[in-house]
Amino acid sequence: MALSLVNFVVVIAAVLLIIGLMVVNAVIMVYAERKTAGFIQRRPGPYEVGPWGTVQAICDSMKLLGKQIFIPGNVDWILFFAAPVLAFFPVLLLFLPIPFGPYLTALKVDEGILLILAFAGFGVISNILAGWASNNKYGLLGAARAVSQSVAYEIPMIMALLGVIFLTGSMNLTQIVERQGAWPWQWNLAVQPLAFFIYVVSMVGETNRAPFDLPEAESELTAGFHTEYSGMGFALFFLSEYANMLLVCCVCATFFLGGWRGPFLDGFWWTFIKAYALMMFIVWIRWTFPRVRFDQLLNINWKWLLPLSILNLWITAVILKFVD
Amino acid sequence: MIKAIIDNIKGLYSLLVGLSITGRFFFSPQKTVHYPRQVVDPEILSSYRGPLELVPGEKDPAQSRCICCQMCVRACPGHCLTVTKEAGSKAPAAYLYDFTYCCLCAACVESCPTGAIRFSHKVYLVADSRQALHLDLLADLKVRASAAPASESAAAEQTGT
Protein backbone atom coordinates (compact mmCIF):
# COMPACT_ATOMS: atom_id res chain seq x y z
CA MET A 1 0.00 0.00 0.00
CA ALA A 2 1.47 3.28 -1.11
CA LEU A 3 1.42 5.88 1.62
CA SER A 4 0.56 8.91 -0.46
CA LEU A 5 -0.12 12.41 0.85
CA VAL A 6 -3.88 11.76 0.87
CA ASN A 7 -3.43 8.67 3.02
CA PHE A 8 -1.19 10.61 5.35
CA VAL A 9 -3.82 13.35 5.81
CA VAL A 10 -6.52 10.70 6.35
CA VAL A 11 -4.45 8.99 9.04
CA ILE A 12 -3.73 12.28 10.84
CA ALA A 13 -7.43 13.20 10.78
CA ALA A 14 -8.29 9.71 12.02
CA VAL A 15 -5.85 10.00 14.93
CA LEU A 16 -7.44 13.30 15.97
CA LEU A 17 -10.92 11.75 15.73
CA ILE A 18 -9.75 8.75 17.75
CA ILE A 19 -8.44 11.02 20.54
CA GLY A 20 -11.91 12.61 20.65
CA LEU A 21 -13.54 9.18 20.60
CA MET A 22 -11.35 8.00 23.49
CA VAL A 23 -12.26 10.95 25.70
CA VAL A 24 -15.98 10.84 24.88
CA ASN A 25 -15.99 7.05 25.31
CA ALA A 26 -14.36 7.31 28.75
CA VAL A 27 -16.82 9.98 29.93
CA ILE A 28 -19.85 8.05 28.65
CA MET A 29 -18.63 4.71 29.98
CA VAL A 30 -17.82 6.07 33.45
CA TYR A 31 -21.36 7.44 33.67
CA ALA A 32 -22.92 4.27 32.22
CA GLU A 33 -20.88 2.04 34.50
CA ARG A 34 -21.79 3.94 37.66
CA LYS A 35 -25.45 4.07 36.67
CA THR A 36 -25.49 0.34 35.91
CA ALA A 37 -23.80 -0.43 39.21
CA GLY A 38 -26.43 1.67 40.95
CA PHE A 39 -29.39 0.07 39.21
CA ILE A 40 -28.10 -3.44 39.86
CA GLN A 41 -27.75 -2.57 43.56
CA ARG A 42 -31.18 -0.84 43.51
CA ARG A 43 -29.87 2.68 44.05
CA PRO A 44 -29.85 5.57 41.57
CA GLY A 45 -26.10 5.98 40.99
CA PRO A 46 -24.89 9.54 40.16
CA TYR A 47 -27.98 11.68 40.68
CA GLU A 48 -27.35 15.15 42.05
CA VAL A 49 -25.01 16.84 39.54
CA GLY A 50 -26.97 17.87 36.48
CA PRO A 51 -30.15 16.15 35.25
CA TRP A 52 -29.92 12.52 36.35
CA GLY A 53 -26.27 13.09 37.28
CA THR A 54 -25.14 13.40 33.67
CA VAL A 55 -22.58 16.11 34.47
CA GLN A 56 -20.95 14.01 37.21
CA ALA A 57 -18.39 12.32 34.92
CA ILE A 58 -17.34 15.68 33.44
CA CYS A 59 -16.92 17.16 36.92
CA ASP A 60 -14.80 14.16 37.92
CA SER A 61 -12.55 14.55 34.88
CA MET A 62 -12.15 18.28 35.66
CA LYS A 63 -11.10 17.29 39.18
CA LEU A 64 -8.53 14.85 37.78
CA LEU A 65 -7.13 17.55 35.48
CA GLY A 66 -6.71 19.94 38.39
CA LYS A 67 -5.01 17.52 40.75
CA GLN A 68 -1.35 17.70 41.67
CA ILE A 69 0.85 14.99 40.17
CA PHE A 70 2.53 13.61 43.25
CA ILE A 71 5.91 11.91 42.76
CA PRO A 72 6.95 9.58 45.58
CA GLY A 73 10.58 9.30 46.69
CA ASN A 74 13.02 6.84 45.04
CA VAL A 75 11.02 6.78 41.84
CA ASP A 76 12.70 6.12 38.50
CA TRP A 77 11.05 9.22 37.13
CA ILE A 78 11.81 8.73 33.41
CA LEU A 79 10.05 5.38 33.41
CA PHE A 80 7.44 6.71 35.85
CA PHE A 81 6.33 9.32 33.32
CA ALA A 82 6.96 7.12 30.28
CA ALA A 83 4.50 4.44 31.49
CA PRO A 84 1.19 6.38 31.24
CA VAL A 85 2.24 7.87 27.91
CA LEU A 86 3.13 4.41 26.65
CA ALA A 87 -0.27 3.16 27.79
CA PHE A 88 -2.05 5.98 25.93
CA PHE A 89 -0.32 6.30 22.56
CA PRO A 90 -0.48 2.75 21.12
CA VAL A 91 -4.27 2.88 21.47
CA LEU A 92 -4.36 5.66 18.85
CA LEU A 93 -2.68 3.29 16.41
CA LEU A 94 -4.85 0.33 17.39
CA PHE A 95 -8.07 1.99 16.20
CA LEU A 96 -6.69 2.80 12.72
CA PRO A 97 -7.37 -0.55 10.98
CA ILE A 98 -10.85 -1.01 12.53
CA PRO A 99 -13.53 -0.72 9.81
CA PHE A 100 -16.17 1.36 11.57
CA GLY A 101 -18.19 1.74 8.38
CA PRO A 102 -18.01 0.98 4.66
CA TYR A 103 -16.09 4.21 4.07
CA LEU A 104 -15.03 4.92 7.64
CA THR A 105 -11.76 2.99 7.75
CA ALA A 106 -8.63 4.98 8.39
CA LEU A 107 -6.02 2.45 7.28
CA LYS A 108 -7.04 -0.38 4.94
CA VAL A 109 -4.14 -2.78 5.45
CA ASP A 110 -4.05 -6.48 4.60
CA GLU A 111 -2.72 -7.52 8.01
CA GLY A 112 -5.01 -5.34 10.12
CA ILE A 113 -5.59 -7.82 12.93
CA LEU A 114 -1.85 -8.56 13.08
CA LEU A 115 -1.20 -4.83 13.58
CA ILE A 116 -3.76 -4.67 16.40
CA LEU A 117 -2.48 -7.76 18.20
CA ALA A 118 1.16 -6.69 17.88
CA PHE A 119 0.67 -3.16 19.22
CA ALA A 120 -1.72 -4.29 21.96
CA GLY A 121 1.41 -5.71 23.61
CA PHE A 122 2.49 -2.16 24.47
CA GLY A 123 -0.25 -2.05 27.08
CA VAL A 124 1.46 -4.86 28.99
CA ILE A 125 4.82 -3.07 28.77
CA SER A 126 3.29 0.12 30.15
CA ASN A 127 1.81 -1.84 33.04
CA ILE A 128 5.12 -3.45 33.97
CA LEU A 129 6.97 -0.13 33.62
CA ALA A 130 4.43 1.61 35.86
CA GLY A 131 4.70 -1.10 38.50
CA TRP A 132 8.49 -1.23 38.38
CA ALA A 133 9.18 2.50 38.25
CA SER A 134 6.87 3.51 41.11
CA ASN A 135 9.07 1.60 43.62
CA ASN A 136 6.08 0.21 45.46
CA LYS A 137 5.48 -3.41 46.43
CA TYR A 138 1.80 -3.27 45.50
CA GLY A 139 2.68 -1.72 42.16
CA LEU A 140 5.26 -4.40 41.45
CA LEU A 141 2.91 -7.24 42.43
CA GLY A 142 0.17 -5.75 40.28
CA ALA A 143 2.54 -5.44 37.35
CA ALA A 144 3.71 -9.05 37.73
CA ARG A 145 0.10 -10.21 37.76
CA ALA A 146 -0.81 -8.00 34.79
CA VAL A 147 1.99 -9.49 32.71
CA SER A 148 1.30 -13.15 33.44
CA GLN A 149 -2.43 -12.60 32.93
CA SER A 150 -2.21 -10.63 29.70
CA VAL A 151 0.37 -12.97 28.19
CA ALA A 152 -1.76 -15.99 29.12
CA TYR A 153 -5.06 -14.62 27.79
CA GLU A 154 -3.55 -13.38 24.54
CA ILE A 155 -3.03 -16.98 23.35
CA PRO A 156 -6.66 -18.27 23.38
CA MET A 157 -7.74 -14.85 22.08
CA ILE A 158 -5.52 -15.18 19.01
CA MET A 159 -6.53 -18.84 18.58
CA ALA A 160 -10.21 -17.85 18.59
CA LEU A 161 -9.57 -15.11 16.02
CA LEU A 162 -7.59 -17.60 13.90
CA GLY A 163 -10.73 -19.70 13.43
CA VAL A 164 -12.44 -16.76 11.72
CA ILE A 165 -9.29 -15.98 9.73
CA PHE A 166 -9.27 -19.59 8.46
CA LEU A 167 -12.88 -19.21 7.31
CA THR A 168 -12.31 -15.89 5.59
CA GLY A 169 -8.82 -16.61 4.30
CA SER A 170 -7.78 -13.06 5.06
CA MET A 171 -6.46 -10.91 7.88
CA ASN A 172 -7.93 -7.79 6.34
CA LEU A 173 -10.68 -6.56 8.66
CA THR A 174 -12.69 -4.98 5.84
CA GLN A 175 -12.77 -8.29 3.95
CA ILE A 176 -13.79 -10.15 7.11
CA VAL A 177 -16.77 -7.82 7.48
CA GLU A 178 -17.68 -8.08 3.78
CA ARG A 179 -17.78 -11.90 3.92
CA GLN A 180 -20.49 -11.76 6.60
CA GLY A 181 -24.14 -11.05 5.91
CA ALA A 182 -26.51 -8.53 7.38
CA TRP A 183 -28.65 -10.84 9.53
CA PRO A 184 -27.46 -12.55 12.74
CA TRP A 185 -27.52 -16.07 11.22
CA GLN A 186 -25.16 -14.87 8.52
CA TRP A 187 -22.58 -13.60 11.00
CA ASN A 188 -19.48 -15.52 12.00
CA LEU A 189 -21.12 -16.01 15.40
CA ALA A 190 -23.38 -18.64 13.79
CA VAL A 191 -20.48 -20.73 12.46
CA GLN A 192 -17.94 -20.04 15.24
CA PRO A 193 -19.94 -19.94 18.51
CA LEU A 194 -17.17 -21.58 20.55
CA ALA A 195 -14.60 -19.11 19.23
CA PHE A 196 -16.96 -16.26 20.14
CA PHE A 197 -17.32 -17.58 23.69
CA ILE A 198 -13.55 -18.00 24.09
CA TYR A 199 -12.96 -14.54 22.67
CA VAL A 200 -15.44 -12.87 25.03
CA VAL A 201 -13.89 -14.55 28.09
CA SER A 202 -10.31 -13.71 27.10
CA MET A 203 -11.42 -10.20 26.09
CA VAL A 204 -12.47 -9.58 29.70
CA GLY A 205 -9.19 -11.11 30.90
CA GLU A 206 -7.11 -9.12 28.45
CA THR A 207 -8.54 -5.75 29.49
CA ASN A 208 -8.09 -6.52 33.21
CA ARG A 209 -11.77 -6.13 33.97
CA ALA A 210 -13.68 -7.81 36.77
CA PRO A 211 -13.95 -10.74 37.46
CA PHE A 212 -10.39 -10.92 36.11
CA ASP A 213 -9.18 -7.58 37.49
CA LEU A 214 -6.38 -9.08 39.58
CA PRO A 215 -3.70 -6.54 38.54
CA GLU A 216 -5.71 -3.85 40.32
CA ALA A 217 -7.45 -5.95 42.98
CA GLU A 218 -8.38 -3.27 45.52
CA SER A 219 -8.70 -5.58 48.49
CA GLU A 220 -5.20 -7.00 48.05
CA LEU A 221 -3.12 -4.44 46.15
CA THR A 222 -4.79 -1.04 46.88
CA ALA A 223 -4.78 -0.18 43.15
CA GLY A 224 -2.14 -2.44 41.61
CA PHE A 225 0.25 -0.98 39.08
CA HIS A 226 -1.20 2.55 39.20
CA THR A 227 -1.10 2.87 43.01
CA GLU A 228 1.40 5.75 42.95
CA TYR A 229 -0.18 7.68 40.08
CA SER A 230 -2.35 10.73 40.65
CA GLY A 231 -3.87 13.42 38.48
CA MET A 232 -3.29 13.09 34.75
CA GLY A 233 -0.95 10.09 35.14
CA PHE A 234 -3.85 8.11 36.54
CA ALA A 235 -6.26 9.67 34.03
CA LEU A 236 -4.14 8.44 31.11
CA PHE A 237 -4.23 4.88 32.46
CA PHE A 238 -7.95 5.25 32.95
CA LEU A 239 -8.52 6.56 29.43
CA SER A 240 -6.45 3.80 27.88
CA GLU A 241 -8.28 1.15 29.92
CA TYR A 242 -11.66 2.25 28.58
CA ALA A 243 -10.22 2.72 25.09
CA ASN A 244 -8.83 -0.82 25.22
CA MET A 245 -12.27 -2.07 26.23
CA LEU A 246 -13.82 -0.30 23.24
CA LEU A 247 -11.09 -1.70 20.99
CA VAL A 248 -11.59 -5.35 21.95
CA CYS A 249 -15.35 -4.87 21.61
CA CYS A 250 -14.89 -3.34 18.13
CA VAL A 251 -12.66 -6.28 17.13
CA CYS A 252 -15.28 -8.68 18.48
CA ALA A 253 -18.05 -6.90 16.56
CA THR A 254 -15.93 -6.99 13.40
CA PHE A 255 -14.96 -10.64 13.66
CA PHE A 256 -18.07 -12.29 15.04
CA LEU A 257 -21.02 -9.89 14.82
CA GLY A 258 -20.80 -8.64 11.26
CA GLY A 259 -19.15 -5.25 11.89
CA TRP A 260 -20.99 -2.53 10.00
CA ARG A 261 -23.27 -5.06 8.28
CA GLY A 262 -26.64 -5.07 9.94
CA PRO A 263 -30.34 -5.52 9.22
CA PHE A 264 -32.03 -2.90 6.96
CA LEU A 265 -29.21 -0.39 6.56
CA ASP A 266 -25.44 -0.94 6.62
CA GLY A 267 -23.38 1.76 8.26
CA PHE A 268 -21.03 2.76 11.05
CA TRP A 269 -23.94 2.87 13.52
CA TRP A 270 -24.11 -0.91 13.54
CA THR A 271 -20.45 -1.15 14.61
CA PHE A 272 -21.05 1.27 17.47
CA ILE A 273 -24.31 -0.38 18.54
CA LYS A 274 -22.68 -3.82 18.65
CA ALA A 275 -19.51 -2.58 20.34
CA TYR A 276 -21.41 -0.68 23.03
CA ALA A 277 -23.78 -3.60 23.61
CA LEU A 278 -20.69 -5.72 24.30
CA MET A 279 -19.31 -2.98 26.57
CA MET A 280 -22.52 -2.98 28.57
CA PHE A 281 -22.30 -6.76 28.79
CA ILE A 282 -18.77 -6.41 30.26
CA VAL A 283 -20.10 -3.90 32.79
CA TRP A 284 -22.98 -6.24 33.64
CA ILE A 285 -20.45 -9.05 34.23
CA ARG A 286 -18.36 -6.81 36.45
CA TRP A 287 -21.22 -6.06 38.83
CA THR A 288 -22.39 -9.69 38.93
CA PHE A 289 -19.41 -11.99 39.40
CA PRO A 290 -16.91 -11.98 42.28
CA ARG A 291 -13.20 -11.72 41.55
CA VAL A 292 -11.46 -15.07 40.91
CA ARG A 293 -8.29 -16.15 42.69
CA PHE A 294 -5.06 -15.94 40.70
CA ASP A 295 -4.56 -19.71 40.35
CA GLN A 296 -8.21 -20.05 39.27
CA LEU A 297 -7.63 -17.33 36.70
CA LEU A 298 -4.68 -19.17 35.17
CA ASN A 299 -6.44 -22.56 35.43
CA ILE A 300 -9.40 -21.23 33.43
CA ASN A 301 -6.99 -20.08 30.78
CA TRP A 302 -4.49 -22.93 30.49
CA LYS A 303 -6.79 -25.87 31.27
CA TRP A 304 -9.98 -24.79 29.51
CA LEU A 305 -9.72 -21.91 27.07
CA LEU A 306 -6.47 -22.99 25.42
CA PRO A 307 -7.46 -26.65 24.76
CA LEU A 308 -10.93 -25.54 23.65
CA SER A 309 -9.51 -22.98 21.26
CA ILE A 310 -7.10 -25.55 19.79
CA LEU A 311 -10.03 -27.96 19.39
CA ASN A 312 -12.08 -25.24 17.70
CA LEU A 313 -9.22 -24.43 15.35
CA TRP A 314 -8.71 -28.11 14.51
CA ILE A 315 -12.41 -28.70 13.78
CA THR A 316 -12.52 -25.57 11.62
CA ALA A 317 -9.49 -26.72 9.66
CA VAL A 318 -10.85 -30.25 9.12
CA ILE A 319 -14.28 -29.02 7.98
CA LEU A 320 -12.72 -26.48 5.63
CA LYS A 321 -10.53 -29.24 4.17
CA PHE A 322 -13.52 -31.51 3.48
CA VAL A 323 -15.74 -28.72 2.17
CA ASP A 324 -13.04 -27.72 -0.31
CA MET B 1 -12.22 -36.18 33.97
CA ILE B 2 -15.80 -36.50 32.69
CA LYS B 3 -17.08 -35.49 36.13
CA ALA B 4 -14.88 -32.39 36.05
CA ILE B 5 -16.29 -31.43 32.64
CA ILE B 6 -19.88 -31.88 33.85
CA ASP B 7 -19.11 -29.82 36.96
CA ASN B 8 -17.73 -27.02 34.83
CA ILE B 9 -20.79 -27.00 32.59
CA LYS B 10 -22.96 -26.76 35.71
CA GLY B 11 -20.71 -23.89 36.82
CA LEU B 12 -21.37 -22.10 33.53
CA TYR B 13 -25.11 -22.48 34.15
CA SER B 14 -24.69 -20.87 37.59
CA LEU B 15 -23.04 -17.89 35.87
CA LEU B 16 -26.22 -17.46 33.80
CA VAL B 17 -28.33 -17.63 36.97
CA GLY B 18 -26.20 -14.85 38.50
CA LEU B 19 -26.58 -12.71 35.40
CA SER B 20 -30.35 -13.17 35.42
CA ILE B 21 -30.54 -12.11 39.10
CA THR B 22 -28.58 -8.89 38.55
CA GLY B 23 -30.52 -8.29 35.34
CA ARG B 24 -33.79 -8.54 37.25
CA PHE B 25 -32.48 -6.18 39.95
CA PHE B 26 -31.45 -3.71 37.23
CA PHE B 27 -35.08 -3.28 36.19
CA SER B 28 -36.69 -3.47 39.64
CA PRO B 29 -37.59 -0.22 41.45
CA GLN B 30 -35.00 1.51 43.60
CA LYS B 31 -35.10 1.75 47.38
CA THR B 32 -33.14 4.98 47.79
CA VAL B 33 -34.71 7.88 49.71
CA HIS B 34 -33.45 11.19 48.31
CA TYR B 35 -33.05 12.78 51.72
CA PRO B 36 -33.47 16.54 51.54
CA ARG B 37 -36.50 16.18 49.25
CA GLN B 38 -37.95 13.04 50.87
CA VAL B 39 -37.78 11.66 54.39
CA VAL B 40 -37.83 8.11 55.67
CA ASP B 41 -41.23 6.76 56.69
CA PRO B 42 -41.56 7.26 60.53
CA GLU B 43 -43.06 3.75 60.75
CA ILE B 44 -39.69 2.31 59.64
CA LEU B 45 -37.84 4.56 62.09
CA SER B 46 -39.77 3.20 65.11
CA SER B 47 -37.06 0.57 65.59
CA TYR B 48 -34.18 3.00 65.01
CA ARG B 49 -31.79 3.61 67.90
CA GLY B 50 -30.89 7.27 67.92
CA PRO B 51 -29.36 9.25 70.82
CA LEU B 52 -30.95 8.77 74.26
CA GLU B 53 -33.91 10.86 75.42
CA LEU B 54 -35.78 11.11 78.71
CA VAL B 55 -39.27 9.60 78.98
CA PRO B 56 -41.82 12.28 80.00
CA GLY B 57 -43.42 11.91 83.42
CA GLU B 58 -46.94 10.53 83.72
CA LYS B 59 -48.45 13.66 85.31
CA ASP B 60 -46.19 16.44 84.07
CA PRO B 61 -44.60 15.80 80.63
CA ALA B 62 -41.89 18.36 81.40
CA GLN B 63 -40.82 16.38 84.49
CA SER B 64 -38.49 13.36 84.21
CA ARG B 65 -39.13 9.98 85.85
CA CYS B 66 -35.47 9.87 86.90
CA ILE B 67 -34.81 9.25 90.62
CA CYS B 68 -31.04 9.87 90.44
CA CYS B 69 -30.15 6.31 91.50
CA GLN B 70 -27.03 6.43 89.27
CA MET B 71 -27.64 2.89 87.91
CA CYS B 72 -27.36 4.13 84.31
CA VAL B 73 -24.13 5.98 85.10
CA ARG B 74 -22.60 2.76 86.49
CA ALA B 75 -23.92 0.56 83.69
CA CYS B 76 -22.59 2.79 80.90
CA PRO B 77 -19.42 1.27 79.36
CA GLY B 78 -18.44 4.55 77.72
CA HIS B 79 -18.92 6.76 80.81
CA CYS B 80 -21.00 9.15 78.77
CA LEU B 81 -23.73 9.91 81.35
CA THR B 82 -23.51 12.46 84.17
CA VAL B 83 -26.48 12.72 86.56
CA THR B 84 -26.50 15.22 89.44
CA LYS B 85 -29.13 15.36 92.17
CA GLU B 86 -31.17 18.32 93.34
CA ALA B 87 -30.65 19.06 97.07
CA GLY B 88 -33.53 17.73 99.18
CA SER B 89 -35.39 15.89 96.43
CA LYS B 90 -35.01 12.84 94.13
CA ALA B 91 -35.38 14.86 90.90
CA PRO B 92 -32.23 15.33 88.78
CA ALA B 93 -30.62 18.77 88.61
CA ALA B 94 -28.76 17.90 85.41
CA TYR B 95 -28.81 14.93 83.07
CA LEU B 96 -25.82 15.32 80.73
CA TYR B 97 -25.22 12.90 77.90
CA ASP B 98 -22.05 12.77 75.76
CA PHE B 99 -23.21 11.25 72.46
CA THR B 100 -19.65 11.17 71.08
CA TYR B 101 -18.80 8.26 73.43
CA CYS B 102 -22.17 6.49 73.32
CA CYS B 103 -22.17 3.08 71.61
CA LEU B 104 -25.99 2.71 71.77
CA CYS B 105 -25.66 -0.55 73.76
CA ALA B 106 -28.88 0.00 75.79
CA ALA B 107 -27.22 -0.98 79.09
CA CYS B 108 -28.53 2.26 80.65
CA VAL B 109 -32.06 1.70 79.31
CA GLU B 110 -32.17 -1.84 80.73
CA SER B 111 -30.69 -0.86 84.10
CA CYS B 112 -33.11 2.01 84.75
CA PRO B 113 -35.57 0.96 87.52
CA THR B 114 -38.16 3.59 86.57
CA GLY B 115 -37.96 3.42 82.78
CA ALA B 116 -36.86 7.04 82.55
CA ILE B 117 -34.69 6.79 79.46
CA ARG B 118 -35.23 5.39 75.99
CA PHE B 119 -33.76 5.67 72.50
CA SER B 120 -35.02 8.49 70.32
CA HIS B 121 -35.64 8.08 66.58
CA LYS B 122 -33.58 11.07 65.47
CA VAL B 123 -31.99 9.89 62.18
CA TYR B 124 -31.17 13.34 60.93
CA LEU B 125 -29.01 14.49 63.86
CA VAL B 126 -26.00 16.35 62.47
CA ALA B 127 -23.38 18.32 64.39
CA ASP B 128 -20.50 20.48 63.23
CA SER B 129 -18.52 20.17 66.47
CA ARG B 130 -17.96 17.66 69.27
CA GLN B 131 -19.38 20.16 71.75
CA ALA B 132 -22.72 20.11 69.91
CA LEU B 133 -23.04 16.39 70.68
CA HIS B 134 -22.78 16.94 74.46
CA LEU B 135 -26.54 16.89 75.00
CA ASP B 136 -28.52 18.22 77.97
CA LEU B 137 -31.43 15.78 78.14
CA LEU B 138 -33.47 17.71 80.73
CA ALA B 139 -33.54 20.80 78.49
CA ASP B 140 -34.46 18.58 75.55
CA LEU B 141 -37.35 17.08 77.57
CA LYS B 142 -38.68 20.55 78.43
CA VAL B 143 -38.52 21.60 74.77
CA ARG B 144 -40.45 18.52 73.68
CA ALA B 145 -43.05 18.98 76.43
CA SER B 146 -43.75 22.56 75.39
CA ALA B 147 -43.84 21.66 71.70
CA ALA B 148 -46.39 18.81 71.75
CA PRO B 149 -47.71 18.06 75.22
CA ALA B 150 -50.67 15.87 74.20
CA SER B 151 -48.91 13.51 71.81
CA GLU B 152 -45.89 13.15 74.12
CA SER B 153 -47.96 12.10 77.10
CA ALA B 154 -49.79 9.62 74.89
CA ALA B 155 -46.44 8.19 73.79
CA ALA B 156 -45.34 8.03 77.42
CA GLU B 157 -48.37 5.92 78.30
CA GLN B 158 -47.59 3.52 75.46
CA THR B 159 -43.95 3.03 76.33
CA GLY B 160 -44.33 3.39 80.10
CA THR B 161 -42.94 0.47 82.11
Q: Quick one: overall form of chain A?
A: globular
Oligomeric form: heterodimer
- What is the H/E string of chain A? HHHHHHHHHHHH
The counted number of beta strands of chain A is: 0
Overall structural class of chain B, as computed from helix and strand content, comes to alpha+beta
What is the CATH level 1 assignment of the domain at 48-159 in chain B?
A: Alpha Beta
Largest sheet of chain A: none
Figure out the total of helices of chain B: 6
Radius of gyration of chain A: 20 Å
| Helix content percent band of chain A | 55-70%
Mean pLDDT of chain A: 85
Question: Largest interface, by Cβ-Cβ below 8 angstroms: which chains and how many residues each?
Answer: A-B, 15 and 16 residues
Name the poorly predicted regions of chain A. Answer: none
Described by strand count, sense and barrel closure, the largest sheet of chain B is: 3 strands, antiparallel
In the CATH scheme, what's the topology name of the domain at 48-159 in chain B? Alpha-Beta Plaits
**Spans where pLDDT lies below 50 across 5 or more residues of chain B:** none
